[in-house]
Amino acid sequence: MALAVLLTIQIADAQVKTPADAKKAVESATTAAENPKKASKPATWLKLAGAYMDAYTAPMGNGWIGANKQELTFIMGSDKPTSTQTVTLAGEQYSKETYSTMNYYFNANNQLALIEVTKPVYEDALDKALEAYRKAAEVDVKGSKTKDIDAGIKNISAKYVEQGMNKYMFGDLKAASVCFEKAVNASESAPTPAIDTMAIYNAGFTAWMTQDYAKAEPFFKRCLDLGYAEDGEVYAKLADIYSKLDKKEDAKSVLEKGFSAYPQNQSIIIGLINYYIESGEQPDELFALLDVAKKNEPNNASLYYVEGDIHNKLGHKDEAIAAYLKSNEIDPNYEFGLIGIGILYYNEALEIQEKAANEFDDAKYAALIEEFETALMNAIDPFEKAFNITKDNQIKVSIAEYLKNIYYRFRDKDPKYEEGYNKYSTIVENGL
Fold first, then answer.
1. d(Cα 362, Cα 380) in Å, to the nearest integer?
2. Is residue 186 part of a domain?
3. How many Cβ atoms are within 10 Å of 124's Cβ, its own excluded?
């Protein structure tokens, strides 16, 4: 689960004002805007908006996203960090450099990835800048400054998105959602409104992550109205919201629509399966939808894999294996059906093993161990075939992990099993 991300490289400003100078400029521009005669001119408000934007960027120093440490060492001159430490954000390590008004976070490539302002000139600089641009649009009756106003508002919207991304990285999801919502509202401001679907999705996603379902719902609904589905994830998340809000029929309807459009989306499939399990309804409609997808794309092997996955999750072992095999029959180079069969038997073996561990009758225990070993043996052939078919080394290593464990069980029964264990153990340890 992740935010929708649009990667951008920022360009350093030609000259960044000091925080003190930026504050003086805001105070001067505010005084001018309070003059009734000057307040009727859009240029006055544009100047105030620009002053607030300078105040927003002033504490960030001369760094810019994408700059490397070597560049910044030259550009920043005598402005040196007071401390440096390694931190982890969203599972990734960064080098954090602390300055008087900001923190710089460098990624593993020594590129500046995040700028965190610690001493802002004004806490609400972006809000104030947006107000000023809107006021400029209001008094610009001739539309002579439309282009400048639009550019300024789009810049503010982008800054809100940056703030949202930063808040997300720092784990403050509620604040991130507020920032993304502000980005949406800013982009839709007059005089030339624009729709930022990515910001709409991110506002909903971060609200959903904090379980603020009432707030997240309209954002996801709007995404679908605008045709923005994030490969089906919007359907899955909106359905989850409806489920949490006890709107089961709405959840089912959204999932079915999402499945029709994105039949391979695992979040949607799991949502539908959970719905049918919890409701007690027969999943006939689910398979009917899948049949329609297969008729539209009869040579799409992945659809049969999806069918097998659904049967597997519903406990329909024979039907799952048949569908998995069909996927490989349609496309002999499609490894996932074979992997599905291997995992099915492997998981079956684990379940039997757990039963055996809790069985105190010797005869029953021995029977369970025999079933356990049979299930493991059944997993070998599909895993071996999948290993030979796939061209993806990462997938090969994952399959090797399963085969290593299986062959370990039988390594003392036959030299070929010991050979297999050594082969796949080496792959798991050293890769390909």
1. 28
2. no
3. 12
Task: Tell how far CA 31 is from the center of its chain.
Answer: 45
Q: What is the pTM of this model?
A: 0.72
- CA distance linking residue 425 with residue 432, whole number of Å: 12
Q: Please report whether residue 163 resides in a domain.
A: no
* Residue 408 maps to a domain: yes
Q: Which of 294, 326, 358 is the last residue of a domain?
A: 326
Q: What CATH number did the domain enclosing 247 receive?
A: 1.25.40.10
CA within 13 Å, CB half, 76: 17
The CA–CA distances, whole Å, from 219 to 107, 209, 236, 287, 418 equal: 32, 13, 14, 30, 56
Is residue 272 within 8 Å of residue 241, measured between CB atoms?
no
**Rounded Cα–Cα distance for residues 186 and 159 (Å):** 10
Domain around 317: 229-326
- pLDDT (tens digit per residue) in 70-116: 888 888 888 899 999 999 998 899 999 999 999 999 999 999 999 99
Q: Report the Cα 48 to chain-centroid distance in Å.
A: 37
Task: Kindly report the three-state secondary structure assignment for every residue of 24-61.
Answer: HHHHHHHHHHCCHHHHCCHHHHHHHHHHHHHHHHHHHC
Better pLDDT: 293 or 128: 128
Q: In 3-state terms, what secondary structure has residue 112?
A: strand
CB atoms within 10 A of CB 361: 9
Cα gap 162→275, rounded to integer Å: 37
Q: Is the pLDDT of residue 2 over 70?
A: no
In whole angstroms, what is the distance from residue 271 CA to residue 277 CA? 10
Tokens coding 319 = 């039907």
Residue with the bigger pLDDT between 278 and 49: it is 49
| For range 14-29, the mean pLDDT | 87
Can you tell me the distance from the alpha carbon of 411 to that of 380, in angstroms, rounded to the nearest whole number? Answer: 13
Torsion of CA 162, 166, 168, 171, to 10 degrees: -170
Q: Is the per-residue pLDDT at 8 higher than 50?
A: no
Q: How large is the angle between the packed helices 146-169 and 173-187, nearest 10 degrees?
A: 170
Of 6-20, 60-74, 414-428, the least confident: 6-20
CA dist 192 and 92 (Å) reads: 39
pLDDT of residue 390: 96
User: What is the phi/psi pair of residue 197, to 5°?
Assistant: -65, -35
- How far is residue 71's CA from residue 109's CA, in Å, rounded to a whole number? 13
Contacts of 81 (CB under 8 A, 6+ apart): 97, 98, 99, 104
Q: How many domains does the chain have?
A: 2
Among residues 326, 350, 380, which one ends one of the domains?
A: 326
In a domain, 182, yes or no: no
Answer yes or no: is pLDDT of 7 > 60: no
